[in-house]
Amino acid sequence: QVQVTESGGGLVQAGDSLRLSCAASGRTSRTYAMAWFRQAPGKEREFLAAFRWTGGGPVHADSVKGRFAISRDIAKNTVYLQMNSLKPEDTAVYYCALQRIGASTWDIWGQGTQVTVSS
């Protein structure tokens, strides 16, 4: 089985930066891609960025392009989300997701980490 665990959330002020980490453990050899999502109170879960494990560059949602950047460390089975120029509307629970080889969607989810941006 595969698990993903997020870390790095917290309370920051508008304009600050924060880096989230997501480490995969278990049968990580079947990782196809990893991604970041977020869900704000009363809103649907929103895709932010993704990185395939076997080639290809990162993909970012238009809503965060230029402010957020996903990176990966394949040796550590970890993806990061660097978030700059944070805004109060970035306040949300941030989730890491993993898609296994052969899966049609993101099938492994973390518990989420809270990011709160104060004005």
Describe the model.
By secondary structure, this protein is mostly beta strands. It has no helices and eleven strands. Strands 2, 4, 5, 6, 9, 10 and 11 form a seven-stranded mixed beta sheet that branches. The mean pLDDT is 95.
Structural class: mainly beta
Compute the CA-based radius of gyration.
14 Å
Strand-residue fraction? over 45%
Distance between the termini: 41 Å
Number of helices: 0
Instruction: Report the major sheet.
Output: 7 strands, mixed
**Share of residues in helices:** under 10%
Q: Indicate the mean pLDDT.
A: 95
Count of β-strands: 11
| Shape verdict | globular
- H-E order: EEEEEEEEEEE
**Uncertain residue ranges:** none
Characterize this entry briefly.
β5 and β6 form a beta hairpin.
Topology:
Blueprint: E1 2-7, E2 10-13, E3 18-26, E4 31-39, E5 46-52, E6 59-60, E7 68-73, E8 78-83, E9 92-100, E10 108-109, E11 113-118
List keywords for this structure.
119 residues, mainly beta, seven-stranded mixed sheet, four-stranded antiparallel sheet, 0% helix, globular
